[in-house]
Amino acid sequence: MFPSTHPPSMGSMGLASNNAPDMLWFDTFVHPDEIVDSKDHMPEYEYTVTGLKRIKKRDRIQLGTPVVVNGKALALFRHGDKHFFAIQQICPHAGGNLAMGDIEEIDRMLCVSCPRHKWPFVLHTGDCLVTEDLRAEQYPVEIRTTNGLRSIFVGFSGLNQTLFYEDDF
Ligand code: FES
């Protein structure tokens, strides 16, 4: 995966904040249509005497697409045609696989709920809604067209230094 510092090419669609021109952008080689649209798989709720209750689903669909870019395991999510997200795949609480989490709207914030203890993380910021002490790494995403092929790019502020040995420098 080769990073790029180029601004988005013609025909690409900026989907997250792109006000950091010095970012390194990595191609995930994932076409946007390959990612399951979470809008089609939102959890359902019903009102009971004890309050709002979530209806258990029979089938679990994995909404997140796992990728490794810049040495980081990420989960890519899609919500409708315009909203794409990249968040660290391993839950910062206790290692749950966020790629297998549900996407739900909580207090008007789109969140991924960890499949392990159900703690929600805001997809736009990575903030954990259970505790301020935890935050999932969250990265900007763009769709770019390269040689006629559309794919998801993820932006990083620099190369992951853990990919290098000290002697390399
Ligand atoms: S491991 Fe994710 S909420 Fe606990």
TrEMBL record:
Per UniProt, the keywords (alphabetical) are:
2Fe-2S, Iron, Iron-sulfur, Metal-binding
- One MF term from GO for this chain? 2 iron, 2 sulfur cluster binding
Q: Which PROSITE patterns match?
A: RIESKE (PS51296)
Q: Which Gene3D superfamilies match?
A: Rieske [2Fe-2S] iron-sulphur domain (2.102.10.10)
Check the record and name the InterPro entries matching this protein: Rieske_2Fe-2S, Rieske_2Fe-2S_sf, Sol_Rieske_ferrdox_dom
Highest taxon above the source species: Eukaryota
Which parts of the sequence belong to the Rieske domain? 53-150
Write down the PANTHER family for this protein, in alphabetical order.
FERREDOXIN-RELATED, RIESKE DOMAIN-CONTAINING PROTEIN
**Listed name of the protein:** Rieske domain-containing protein
Q: Which organism is it from?
A: Achlya hypogyna
Q: What is the lineage of its organism?
A: Eukaryota, Sar, Stramenopiles, Oomycota, Saprolegniomycetes
